[in-house]
Amino acid sequence: MSPYVAALVREGASVFLDNARVTVRALDVDDVVVPLVICEPGQANCDVCSPCAHYIRYTIEEFYKRHPMIPPWCIRVLMLVGTALFRAGAIDRVVYVNNWLFPTNPHQPFTIEQIEAVKRHLIGRYPRHAVVFRTVTPRLDAGHSDRLQACGFEMVKARKVHLLDAGDVRCQDRRDTRNDMRLLETSPYTIVGKEQLQVSDMARLESLYRGLYLDKHSHLNPQFNRRFFGMLWRDDQMTYRALRKDGQIDGFVCFWVRDNLLTSVVAGYDVTMPRELGLYRQVIALVIKEAQKQKVLLHLSAGVSRFKELRGAVPYPEYDAVYMRHLPAHRRIAWRLLQWQGHLW
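RE: above sequence
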């Protein structure tokens, strides 16, 4: 079992994420241990462990950002109505399989027999909960998606993620990629790895992450704290790259490589620094360079689509695979509405 998953089970998610009031258990599937996250309605949870936060509250926040002329009171009403509607359907009563509470989870394919066994076990133990596999990307493993659907799971479109073949000459020859690599090579920052980091750096990593993902974007994002960053630092499966100058870290990324796929777990940079420094460009260049070195596909998660596509990333839909057939009709209707919403974009 990963040290991080063991810590989630032993100490509780809220020790590492300030807005994750959930129960975490470990599930052994033929000697493969994956985390289970059990979520209940009425908790103020973040979007990686609350369907209501992800599909309703986050969507309304993004809508308001794109249409700032709409009066704030209208958005508050939408938020209240949308939240009340889906809470009536207990949309947050879920048990997640293999949810590491990351924006993108490590891929773990199962056979049909394993999926059926997991499904039966969880329905028996949590009969009032929907069973959900998060971050299912058919482009990465169509067989996994097909097996889930064959077992009765239904696909609910969750977001658009970006995959980049960093070894493709067409990507390397893109002007934006070349400029980013040149910026990184001439940067006044020193690139440091996990072995050069110290416990005292974890508070800085927390500050950089929160300044970007919480203060600049949304407090519905996971509120990772310094204990979280310290746990990843001690986990051999995770790799850090950071930009340090004059003793201070101003940008970083943490990632893992698994099954020929490099996935960024979490990143951050100092948003107060002049834009001309190109800190975000340097952080992305770090993972592109690493993916090129290891000759693996790069998963760049969601957000800033135009920026990523200019560097050769291709957008693909990502889904929640939801089993709901054992739930009462009003609970299934709530999930059907989310399916319908996904067809609109």
